[in-house]
Amino acid sequence: MFFRIIRNDVLKSKVITLTTMIFVAAASMLVSLAAILVVNLSGALDTLMTKAETPHFMQMHSGDIDIARLGAFAEQNPNVDEYQVVEFLGMDGAEIVLGNHSLAGSVQDNGFSIQNEKFDYLLDLNGNIIQVSDGEIYVPVAYMRDNTAKVGDKAVISGEEFVVAGFLRDSTMNSSLSASKRFLVSSNDFAELKNLGSIEYLIEFRLKDFSAIGEFETAYASAGLEANGPTVTYTLFKTMNAVSDGMMIAIILLISALVVAVAFMCIRFTLLAKIEGDTREIGVMKAIGMRIFDIKKIYLVKYASIAAIGSIFGYILSLMFQDVLLENIRLYMGESENSSYANVFGMIGILLVFFAIIVYVNGVLGRFRRISAAEAIRFGASQEKKRSVKGFSLSSNRLFGTNIFLGIKDVLARKKLYATSLAVLVISAFIMIVPQNLYNTISSKNFIQYMGIGNYDLRIQTSEPNKADEIAKTIERDEDVVNYAVMTTKTFKVKSGNGSEENIKVELGDHTAFPIQYAEGRAPSRNDEIALSTINADEMGKKVGDVLTLVIQGKEQNLAITGIYSDVTNGGKTAKAVFADHSANAIWTIVCVALSDESLVASKVSQYSSIFDFAKTSDIDEFVSQTLGSTIDSIEMVSYVSVAIALLIMVLVTLLFMKLLVAKDRYSIAVMKVFGFTNSDITTQYIVRSLFVLFIGITLGTLLANTFGEMLAGMVISSFGATAFHFEVNPLKAYLFSPLLMVCAVLIATIIGTSRAGEIKISEHIKE
Amino acid sequence: MNRIIIGDRIVKTFGEGDEQRNVLNGVSVEINEGEFVSVMGPSGSGKSTLMYALSGIDHVDDGKVLFNGKDLSTVTESELSDLRRTKMGFVFQQPTMLKNLNILDNIILPAMRSNRKNTAKIVAKARTLMKRVGIAELETRDITQVSGGQLQRAGICRALMSSPEILFGDEPTGALNSQSANEIMDIFTEINAEGTAMLLVTHDAKVAARTERILFMRDGQIVNELRLSKYDGLNFDQRIQKVASKMLEIGI
Ligand SMILES: Nc1ncnc2c1ncn2[C@@H]1O[C@H](COP(=O)(O)OP(=O)(O)OP(=O)(O)O)[C@@H](O)[C@H]1O
Ligand SMILES: [Mg+2]
Questions:
Q1: What is the phi-psi region of residue A181: left when phi exceeds 0, alpha when psi lies from -120 to 50, beta otherwise?
Q2: Mean of the per-residue pLDDT values for chain B?
Q3: For residues B189 and B182, what is the distance between their CA atoms, to the nearest angstrom?
Q4: Which of A162, A160, A159 is nearest to A149 (CA)?
Q5: Which residue CA neighbors atom 18 of ligand 1 most closely?
Q6: Nearest residue in A to B82, CA atom
Q7: In chain A, what residues touch B92 (CB-CB under 8 Å)?
Q8: In which order are the strands placed within the sheet that holds B88-92?
Q9: Which residues contact B237 (CB under 8 A, 6 or more apart)?
Q10: Does B47 sit in the ligand 1 pocket, CB within 6 Å?
């Protein structure tokens, strides 16, 4: 008998059942996908970093190197397991031609290495350590991804010919966020290329126990060893490798949470509507002695069936879609060892959703207990005895047309019911607006300020500090330059709390010329002030107002911390100060230049590149688009997909709600029709209800998106090291087009959903 | 005398195939301006169906209905709505009211449909009517907060808002006790005296005795008709007597 009741119920409300099922399926699919991705990503990352034996500590260094001293240090330090110095042969992009693509436009530091002997192996796409023969070259997998090269291409490096033998995964430099890219050649070829570029050293260590890294870093710095370049540790390698897929997972998780919420709202709405409509029957059933549990069981079984079918579909869909989303992880990191239980985790996620639905349905059904048999039989919908809203009556209404009044009145009178659809609309608006604002923000010109880069047009970087003056003089005379600043980065020793010393890179110069965004505080302006990057401040445990002790020209000096800023350059560990210093050797000097006319950038870049052949001149937009480009692209993609998802949710849910409402309101519709209301009057009333709720939904959703959404987006952004994040809103898109799209979607869905409302046979619903 | 409604050999069919049967089997009726007519007959004889057909709420399957000379089958859905709103009034056995609205709002609802500028006039008229039927103090009450008789009076006010040419009542007193039923009939009589035509469907001889012409239905046909004079408050017992003996005669 159960089965018959449920089947009849489902047949009577096909659209409603189907929509609910679709949402359950979508929610399960997303939850399962998120679980599968997380398991795969962490597994693949582990596999890659284990197989490649990624260094625990890597110091990049350019300039002279004392191998013997480093060797002795490694020998003596009890934490060191293995140690090696790797040569990285940096070469100008213009000298590297793959097939018919030149890397001249690349902002990456492209360079060549040989396969390492002890650890930090370069792996092929099957995860094996590459053995390279003479005349062969292996290309970083990123250049496969963007179709720059393919296997078998001819590669010309400074005139020497090679064959692209394959692609390599580099556990330290895979990520587009890492500034360097390693190509692999044989030792013989390396020897031949060696004097065509400049050698940089990667001083690498693996520790017996990674937890001793802090101690080791201090020891390395105190020993005064080579430190002319960025320092990167295992954790940062891991983060950089995980960040772009991690962000995708974060967004999928967010959307799946929201879609689960939508599925719950659908269930809530249908149940509430059902209970409202069935109050009399339920009362009667109670009166004739059926127990609440018997009644509840019918609904529970129904929703369990819907949830079960939806979950199964969702699981199948997630298995179908996982390949697309895993593509990137597979390419960059390879197959994960635990991918076999990824699917199990997906299933666990789905089971969680399933049980949550059952518990939720059970909770909503708790209302049955409150239905009094006597009242239900006498008054029908006893739940809402007090339905009219005081002070808002037709007789005193001068503001709205009657249909508009009736629409609004209905919403106000059945707040509980509409609150559910409001929640869905708020969520949809949120899904629509947040990714859009995020995209708009990170693609905007100002965003680089969050990354520790001021708003200038091009930068000229040299590691020959004595030539910086020459650059500055030339720039000074250039009439197209409106503003420029010279920034010199030097390494200093910083005293930590327990008296030991660590290295810190400090950028000296005028920080007011091209201001960046400070997460807290402000730029340093006096000689005894300094600002720290977020990562540095975190690691040192410093706040704005604290004091930092630096060793400057042999003397300890106390500097007040004036600000903390986000930085994605140089591994995120930087500082900014203005004091003058003549002793320490500059690691590099950057001349930042703003031009009077942005269209000049390209010609200036090539002009300065040829004048200053000892320096690297780059276009900031190009720099940003190459480091962040793939992220920006995927967020743009996500923002379009979310618009589609949000609109789809709105259309489906509105359809569902309208169908339900019309079914519930048959009697009122019949009454109005008898007394001369036309079909279009009725439709107008439903449209008013929808739009009224939508209007509140858009307002709340936009507010929420700009507060809570901004916070969430800030969390995503902080994975780049950027903090203090504020949305840059495109008002036209966010406040005009998006609401318009939503209005259209809801309007169309309402019209379709209520199209049959007028066809109700009056006589059948009025007749005694 | 002008005819408001002419029903000409109306046929109404329900069901499909073997189930199909004529609920109205060629019914012809005429109702004059200001006339007070009632319809009696056993349950299922087609009284309500006839009323829905004559008021254009339901379409007929054969024959035709003329309202003020206009064939209702040629009129669009929205013109029908307009007709119902402006020329006809309806009172049903159960109070057909919107739960959302209070008594006053329910009463003025049809009038407010397109006539928003005159809200003040409409509300004033509603108050006058409410006072007249004795529910003046109930205007802000919810429909669940008043008695069945009071609700029925509110329904009458709503039906009279447009000063209709004809008022249809489908057992308007069916759910009321005899005291309330009497009071309602007093109101109807008064309204009719002011010139509104009436068509009441009823089971109750006391109700029928107030009307000037009674149609008796059986199996989808009008089988008999009783003409009385217009009720002037006198000789009520005699009128009931006549109705009762007619009912006996034709076995209803
Ligand atoms: N929508 C419908 N579908 C099928 N049959 C119907 C429909 N409406 C009415 N009928 C049938 O038509 C017949 C006449 O119905 P109607 O409501 O007109 O009777 P009535 O004379 O008003 O009865 P009562 O005094 O009980 O109100 C009944 O037998 C009824 O079963
Ligand atoms: Mg009837």
A1: beta
A2: 88
A3: 10
A4: A162
A5: B46
A6: A676
A7: 766, 768
A8: B88-92, B166-170, B197-201, B36-40, B213-218, B221-227
A9: none
A10: yes
DSSP B237: H
Cα–Cα distance measured from residue A565 to residue A574, given in angstroms and rounded to the nearest whole number: 9
Task: Tell me the two tokens of residue A609.
Answer: 């590149």
DSSP state of A389: P
Each residue's pLDDT tens digit, A250-291: 878 888 888 888 888 888 888 887 777 676 667 766 666 667
When pLDDT is averaged across residues A620-642 and rounded to a whole number, the result is 77
List the beta strands (DSSP E) in chain B: 3-14, 21-32, 36-40, 62-67, 70-71, 88-92, 166-170, 197-201, 213-218, 221-227
CA A683/CA A670 separation, integer angstroms: 13
- The number of the ligand 1 atom at minimal distance from the alpha carbon of B171 is 27
ipTM: 0.85
The reply to whether residue B85 touches residue A413, judged by beta carbons under 8 angstroms, is no
Q: State the ligand closest to the CA atom of B42.
A: 1
Phi-psi region of A205 (alpha: psi -120 to 50; beta: other; left: phi over 0): beta
Report how far apart, in Å, the C-alpha atoms of A221 and of each of A62, A74, A208, A224, A505 are. Answer: 16, 13, 19, 5, 12
Ligand nearest to the CA of B217: 1
Which residue has a Cα nearest atom 26 of ligand 1?
Answer: B43
What are the residue ranges spanned by the domains of chain B? Answer: 95-154
Question: Is B21 close to ligand 1, i.e. is its CB under 6 Å away?
Answer: no
**What one-character-per-residue DSSP string does B78-116 give?**
HHHHHHHHHTEEEEESS----TTSBHHHHHHHHHHTT-G
Verify whether ligand 1 is closer than 6 Å to residue B93 (CB atom). no
Residues A171 and A168: their CA atoms lie apart, in Å, by 10
Q: What pLDDT is stored for residue A280 in this prediction?
A: 67
CB-based contacts of A607, cutoff 8 Å, min separation 6: none
DSSP, res A342:
H
What CA–CA distance (Å, rounded) separates A169 from A193?
A: 22
Query: What is the Å distance from ligand 1's center to A768 Cα?
Result: 9
| Alpha-carbon span A371 to A276, nearest angstrom | 10
Return the number of other C-beta atoms located less than 10 Å from residue A698's C-beta. 23
Gap from A13 CA to chain B (nearest CA, Å): 24
- Residue B232's CB is within 10 A of a number of other CB atoms, namely 9
pLDDT of A488 over the 60 cut: yes
| A18 backbone dihedrals φ, ψ, rounded to 5° | -65, -45
A759 C-alpha vs ligand 2 centroid, how far in Å? 22
Q: Reduce the DSSP state of residue B13 to 3 states and report it.
A: strand
Check if the beta carbon of residue A533 is closer than 8 Å to that of residue A566.
yes
Residues of chain A whose C-beta is under 8 A from some C-beta in B? 379, 381, 384-388, 393-395, 397-398, 401-402, 406, 409-410, 413, 667-668, 670-681, 758, 761-763, 766-768
Task: Please name the residue that has the structure tokens 């000229």.
Answer: A460
pLDDT per residue as tens digits for the range A130-153: 999 999 999 999 888 888 888 999
CB contact under 8 A, A676 and B110: yes
The tokens for A229 are 């370049």
Percent helix, strand, coil in chain B, to 5, is 40, 25, 30
- Name which residue sits closest to atom 5 of ligand 1, judged by CA: B14
- Which residues, in sequence order, are bridge partners of residue A589? A462, A488
Residue B63 has pLDDT above 70, yes or no: yes
Chain A partners within 8 Å of B90 (Cβ): 674-675
Least confident of A86-95, A400-409, A562-571, B235-244: A562-571
Give the three-state DSSP class for A483: strand
Report yes or no on whether pTM surpasses 0.80: no
Given a contact cutoff of 8 angstroms between Cβ atoms, the answer to whether B42 and B67 are in contact is no
Q: Residues of B near A (CB-CB distance < 8 A)?
A: 48-49, 52, 57-58, 77-78, 81-86, 90, 92-94, 96-102, 104-105, 108-110, 112-114, 116, 119, 123, 126, 139-140, 142, 144, 158, 170-171, 174
